[in-house]
Design a protein that fits this description.
The complex is a heterodimer of chains A (690) and B (556).
Chain A (H helix, E strand, L loop, with lengths): L22 H13 L3 H4 L3 H19 L3 H37 L5 E5 L5 E5 L8 E5 L8 E5 L1 E5 L1 H4 L5 E4 L6 E2 L4 E4 L1 E6 L7 H10 L7 H30 L6 H11 L2 H20 L2 E3 L2 H9 L2 E5 L5 E12 L5 H12 L5 H14 L13 E3 L7 E5 L3 E6 L1 H10 L6 H12 L3 E9 L5 E12 L3 H10 L3 E5 L4 H11 L3 E3 L4 H13 L4 E5 L5 H6 L2 E5 L4 H6 L2 E3 L6 H39 L17 H25 L8 H34 L3
Parallel strand pairs in A: 11-18, 11-20, 18-19, 20-21, 21-22
Antiparallel strand pairs in A: 1-2, 1-3, 3-9, 4-7, 4-9, 5-6, 5-8, 10-22, 12-17, 13-14, 14-15, 15-16, 16-17
Helix pairs in contact in A: 1-4, 3-4, 3-8, 4-6, 4-9, 4-21, 7-8, 8-20, 8-21, 9-20, 9-21, 10-20, 11-12, 20-21, 20-22, 21-22
Chain B lengths: L2 H34 L5 H10 L7 E2 H25 L14 H12 L9 H4 L2 H31 L6 E3 L1 H27 L8 E5 L5 E5 L3 H10 L20 H26 L2 H28 L3 H6 L11 H14 L14 H12 L10 H17 L8 E2 L2 E2 L2 H27 L1 H4 L6 H16 L14 H31 L15 H25 L1 H6 L1
Helix pairs in contact in B: 1-7, 1-9, 3-4, 3-6, 3-18, 4-18, 6-7, 6-8, 6-9, 6-18, 7-8, 8-9, 9-10, 9-12, 10-12, 10-13, 10-19, 12-13, 13-17, 14-15, 14-19, 15-17, 15-18, 17-18
Chain lengths: 690, 556
């Protein structure tokens, strides 16, 4: 697991993970839900539109020929429409709070614009245009998105990322992008504005979390076509049923036919479709990832190839001491002691890792300052390429093989063949050897052994890659290392492939190659030279710390700047699609039980034989039909939490997922309404509505 | 029913299954080779020159469709002309000119591979019409089905081909010349050996056992019988169809005919699998079809042999309307197979099947003729349903829907949805019209639920291009001739047009490689899913109507 996952709560994810719906959430969404009931708003969703037309129709019928039954059905049909619009409103409502806190950062500020002449003018931040150059000092809010062109400053970006620790922004390089609304804490920077007011990163974030710019994703559109065609089929079936029923002497009341139609058309998925999409985006936002389009989230589910940077994603990013290999005739403890002494002056991460290793493996605790009397530390320099310590009668050195070898030979000592062999073996495995040697008194120096430094793979990466493989996703490690080192690390981490000595062009070429084979590629990146690859990738996650070019090119931005996040993005994409599929299957499977409730109710009076189909033993025809309609409405609200939360998802193969979900949502969808309708029937009869 | 009857019933099913198991691979592979071979036979070249077409042009789907429609229109006009003018042409054996509505119905019926017959073959169709018109259509209408399937398979197999799906003329001619013709010759010889007649005799007076005389018509029966079954056409030479002793003289020819009508439909999934480059996919399609067919055979056999109902109980079996040479089991097997394929030949009167048996036959057709369906049309119908299944449940593996390496987005699902909509629209609207309008009600023989079943059966038969008649309903009226003609036309060509458009879209799309994350469409789980989707989608559409017809009858 990446560390960023455990990062402190942020403003963006301030809302609790609402697994259960609170009454307050529903109440807050009600006004928007009522607005959503206008026919114009429902026109885009034919399933719901048909329900609303049906409800209007039965209202007219109930007014014309009032009966308890007609009014009950009418009321529940309107409630069905309301449940549907409520689902979408609740999903949207969850983004509203986030948008409000973001909006606070957009307040008007005064910018100090530097004119071409060199003098600075005070202007309102909203008048800034692309290309303007502004000065921002400590304590001031950065007036707009831009790149630092001069200076370096620490910036508080917590308004956007929720991360309270300040970040460094400096001109040039990959840390030059600043976001409007963030605050400079120290120093002064000169920023060139790259986005006009109203189109800044924060503006886009607000639009995204509010869902105001939400467009239907391709799969959502396609699914809607299928749902519409199912609606048409059922419309045909119900409309033509009346002539057949009349012929059979069992003509139906129009209220009953409308009820039948509404129960058959896929209202459940029709009502929850938007909510599922909005909630999917929301889940990304909660993990501090902003997807610029819903299309990208869907594409994430389809990803076949994952390009992962080695450094920071797969490995910790620096070499660490992994083992101590004593020279012939040297005790391991002796080597450990020498390694520790020689590393005392070494403040590099590699040096620290040696101290950690000897402490863990040999129980050698770190020696306190002053513990070694008369010790003189020899720090590492680029010239000597060695570090060490001089004690009264003993000198210890640690460093690059050639440097230490020279030091030993100069003192008249010899370097054994076994040491050479060990060094070669470590190099061949992609590691870095550090030789440790000591000189006691005036005797010739001797080699104690070799420290094996290597890139350490993060815990749990192998399991993650195994899981990805099970999902059919191939991982490619991208690194600037030489092929030998790269392959060694790849083998240890369990990735499928490596791109060694990779240049940005290589990366782009690899993505193009994979895409030509019909595969979808996801990657993350931060530098300007990553921009073409980010743009080419189907899912490109840009790090928030990266350049504005990279952020423009990607279709997602990770506010935590955690490169491992791309794996989670893929999982969220899959979960979104699975949720959609599960509820579709559930919705269609529900119809079986509804037939068993409604058909005998419709025809049993005229054709008594058909009452054997009343397997649920529902009380009366009216109670049966009403129960089916009530179930149909309540199931929307009942499944809303699932739609918002997403179905449980454990990475596994497609076969396993299909088996599990078919059983759960297919078979479950057949059985659940039998139970639900029967219970509602009991209740309806008990209360005496019918 | 006795143990011997049960054993016979099981044995003949096993024979059919064994033959199909042995033939579906080699035959399927052969058809695939024929469809993808670069060579033309000399005979075929002559045909292309005669029709002035280029057999090597790789057609876009729209051109392919226009060729198909043009060919079919020409065929309709030719048949219409033959039927109207047969009394003035040779070999008419006394058959009169058909009236315009009847001629239109016959023409459409045979061109759409339906072979709905409002007329009695022996009195209304002369030998010339039978041989040069109807039998020819029996070949080419089946070949059209194979052609559409081939185009769809190419759509899946190709990548970035800008909608090019092959050549209609070469698919049509090759399917006829290299597949159906040789099979028909072999089948005809086998049928003649089994006692089916083959001559050009007009009516012969024979003295019956009771001493009376009967005018028995001869004719080129075996040759027509062979392709009638092989091409899942079903139009009998005689009115009694395969219950007529000249068409189907013995229990052995009966089994042979069942084999013949299942032979090609069960081999074509293999062809499809080979053409799309993954034989397992063909096996899955065949398994789905086989499962549905076997269920229907079992249900029908049980219904006819156990005979629910008062009369069958008393008689020890539902023998009404059955040919005594065959008995209930052989009739049930035939009925399940003829309605499961879009053949529509009958060896028993389906009107007299028991209520659940008749219901099963009706459901077989309402499935959209996919169990195993007509020649070619069964496979493309099943592929369309597979796409629906992938769309409904495929998202549950966490990827956007894809089938056989092609992503399914809005354009694809729109075409598929319209194709799935067509048949229910035709059957339900047509049925509602027939049951409401006086002209429709006039044709109903029995009142009540059975009358409803008669009407639904006729519409289902026409809309699905099956062609079997339930009987009871008088359809030789302008109303039914026109209505059923429309149903046959729409039921055949609208899905064909949509499937070809789909093939074009797919051919243009890039192929996506399969990974462990791809929805597996060759596993038993998927087969189960496909069977369920087929039953549920169809079931949900037709259950209300069925519950008023066969279900009420069964429960009475």
């Amino acid at each position: 697991m990446s560390t960023a996952l455990a990062s402190p709560p942020t403003t963006v994810r301030a809302q609790p993970m609402g697994s259960a719906l609170s009454g307050r959430q529903l109440a807050a969404a009600l006004p928007s839900a009522l607005r959503g009931m206008s026919p114009r708003a429902l026109w885009d969703s034919p399933v719901l539109f048909v329900v609303e037309v049906g409800a209007a129709f039965t209202t007219v019928l109930a007014v014309a020929e009032p009966s308890r039954f007609a009014w009950a059905i009418t009321a529940w049909l309107w409630l069905t429409v309301l449940c549907a619009t409520l689902a979408e409103a609740v999903a949207e409502g969850r983004g509203k709070a986030q948008a409000a806190s973001l909006r606070a950062t957009l307040r008007e500020t005064t910018a100090r614009r530097r004119s071409p002449g060199g003098e600075t003018v005070q202007v309102p931040s909203s008048t800034l245009v692309v290309g303007d150059v502004v000065l921002v000092s400590a304590g001031e809010t950065i007036p707009g998105d831009g790149d630092v062109v001069e200076g370096v400053a620490s910036v508080d970006e917590s308004a956007i990322t929720g991360e309270s620790a300040p970040v460094i922004r400096e001109s040039g390089g990959d840390r030059s992008a600043v976001t409007g609304g963030t605050v400079v804490l120290s120093d002064e920077i000169v920023v060139r504005i790259t986005a006009p007011a109203g189109q800044t990163f924060v503006d886009r974030m607000i639009a995204l979390v509010e869902g105001s710019e939400r467009q239907r994703t391709p799969n959502e559109v396609a699914l809607n076509v299928l749902l519409t065609s199912l609606t048409i089929v059922f419309l045909l079936a119900v409309v033509t049923l009346q002539p057949f029923a009349s012929y059979s002497g069992a003509a139906q009341s129009l209220v009953v036919l409308v009820a039948l139609l509404v129960c058959l058309i896929p209202t459940t998925i029709g009502a929850l479709l938007s909510a599922i999409g909005i909630a999917g985006m929301d889940r990304l936002v909660r993990r501090n990832v902003l997807a610029m389009s819903g299309r990208a989230v869907e594409a994430a589910g389809d990803v076949d190839v994952l390009l992962l940077d080695k450094t920071g994603t797969i490995t910790f990013g620096n070499r660490q001491a992994a083992e101590l290999l004593p020279a012939a005739g040297v005790d391991a403890a002796e080597l450990a002691d020498g390694a520790q002494l020689s590393s005392m002056a070494d403040e590099t991460p590699e040096g620290r890792s040696v101290l950690v290793l000897v402490k863990e493996r040999f129980g050698l605790r770190e020696r306190a300052d002053g513990e070694l009397v008369g010790a003189e530390l020899v720090p590492f320099t680029a010239r000597t390429r060695m570090s060490g310590v001089d004690l009264s009668d003993r000198r210890v050195r640690k460093g690059a093989t050639s440097a230490v070898t020279t030091w030993v030979l100069t003192s008249g000592g010899v370097v054994g063949a076994d040491v050479g062999a060990t060094v070669d073996a470590i190099s061949a495995s992609g590691g870095t050897p550090l030789v440790v040697a000591e000189q006691r008194g005036q005797a010739p120096a001797r080699v104690l052994g070799v420290i094996h430094l290597k890139d350490v793979v993060k815990d749990g990466m192998r399991e993650r890659f195994d899981a990805l493989r099970a999902m059919g996703i191939r991982t490619v490690m991208v690194t600037g290392d030489n092929p030998l080192t790269a392959r060694a690390i790849a083998a240890e981490a369990g990735v499928d492939d490596v791109l060694a000595e990779a240049t940005p062009e290589d990366k782009l070429a690899l993505i193009r190659r994979e895409q030509e084979g019909g595969r979808l590629v996801a990657m993350c990146g931060d530098g300007t030279n990553d921009a073409p690859a980010l743009a080419q990738a189907d899912v490109g996650v840009a790090m928030n710390t990266g350049t504005s070019a990279a952020k423009e090119a990607g279709n997602m931005v990770d506010l935590d700047s955690n490169p491992t996040k791309v794996i989670e993005v893929v999982e969220i994409g899959k979960q979104l699609l699975i949720t959609r599929g599960a509820l579709t299957t559930f919705s269609v499977a529900n119809d079986v039980a509804k037939y068993f409730a409604i058909l005998p109710a419709m025809f049993a009076v005229a054709i008594p034989q058909l009452s054997v189909l009343n397997v649920m033993r529902l009380h009366s025809p009216e109670s049966a039909i009403l129960s089916a309609v009530v179930f149909n409405a309540l199931v929307i609200v009942g499944l809303l939490p699932l739609a918002l939360r997403g179905v449980r998802y454990t990475p596994s193969s497609a076969s396993a997922l299909l088996r599990r979900n078919l059983l759960l949502y297919g078979l479950g969808g057949v059985i659940a309404p039998f139970v639900g309708i029967k219970l509602i029937d009991l209740l309806v009869t008990l209360v005496g509505i019918i | 029913m006795s143990a011997v009857q049960v054993l016979t019933a099981v044995a003949q099913v096993l024979i059919v299954v064994a033959v199909l198991a042995a033939t579906h691979r080699p035959l399927g592979d052969h058809v695939a080779r024929v469809l993808s071979s670069p060579r033309h036979l000399r005979l075929e070249r002559a045909g292309y020159r005669l029709m002035r077409v280029d057999p090597d042009a790789d057609q876009r789907w729209s051109t392919y469709l226009l060729s198909l429609l043009g060919f079919s229109l020409a065929s309709v006009l030719l048949l219409f002309g033959l039927a109207r003018l047969q009394d003035r042409l040779p070999l008419d054996v006394g058959a009169p000119s058909m009236d315009p509505a009847g001629a239109w119905n016959v023409a459409v019926s045979f061109v759409t591979n339906t072979n709905w017959q409002w007329y009695s073959g022996e009195t209304a169709a002369g030998h010339l019409l039978q041989m040069t018109g109807l039998t020819v259509q029996n070949f080419v209408s089946a070949a059209v089905g194979i052609a559409v399937m081939a185009a769809l398979a190419r759509g899946f197999a190709r990548s970035g081909e800008r909608g090019r799906v092959g050549n209609f003329w070469s698919d049509l001619v090759r399917s006829t010349v290299r597949v159906l013709l040789p099979l028909a010759v072999l089948a005809a010889i086998a049928l003649i050996a089994g006692g089916v007649i083959q001559n050009l005799h007009a009516h012969t007076d024979v003295t019956t056992l009771t001493g009376g005389t009967q005018a028995a018509l001869g004719g080129p029966v075996a040759s027509q019988e062979a392709i009638k079954e092989l091409g899942t056409n079903g139009g009998g030479f005689f009115n009694a169809n395969s219950a007529h002793p000249f068409e189907n003289p013995t229990p052995w020819t009966n089994v042979l005919e069942v084999v013949l009508l299942l032979l090609v439909p069960f081999a074509l999934p293999r062809t499809f699998g080979v053409l799309v480059g993954d034989k397992r996919q063909g096996t899955a399609i065949a398994a789905t079809m086989g499962g549905l067919w076997a269920t229907s055979v079992a249900l029908l056999t049980w219904a006819e042999m156990a005979g629910p109902g008062l009369v069958p109980q008393a008689a020890g079996g539902a023998m009404e309307g059955k040919e005594v040479r065959f008995g209930e089991a052989a009739s049930a097997l035939f009925a399940a197979s003829t309605t499961g394929t879009s053949t529509g030949a009958v060896n028993a009167m389906h009107d007299s099947l028991t209520a659940p048996g008749g219901g099963a036959a009706l459901v077989n057709m309402l499935l959209g003729e996919v169990a195993p369906g007509g020649v070619g049309s069964g496979v493309y119908g099943m592929v369309v349903l597979a796409i629906v299944a992938v769309f409904l449940a495929g998202l549950m593996v966490g990827r956007t829907p894809e089938y056989l390496g092609k992503k399914l987005a809005r354009p694809e699902i729109t075409l598929v949805a319209l194709s799935v909509l067509t048949m229910p629209a035709v059957v339900l609207v047509g049925g509602a019209l027939a049951i409401t309008l006086p002209a429709g009600l006039a044709g109903i023989q029995e009142p009540g639920a059975h009358g409803l079943s008669e009407v639904m059966y006729a519409l289902a038969s026409a809309g699905n291009n099956n062609g079997s008649a339930f009987g009871g309903l008088s359809t030789g009226t302008p109303f039914y001739e026109t209505l059923l003609g429309m149903a046959m036309l729409i039921g055949r060509f609208v899905p064909i047009a949509l499937v070809l458009a789909l093939a074009g879209r797919l051919a243009s799309a890039r192929r996506v490689p399969a990974t462990a994350g791809t929805l597996p469409t060759h596993t038993p789980v998927f087969v189960g899913l496909l069977v369920t989707v087929t039953l549920v989608v169809v079931g949900l559409t037709f259950v209300p109507v069925l519950s008023l017809g066969p279900v009420v009858e069964s429960l009475s």
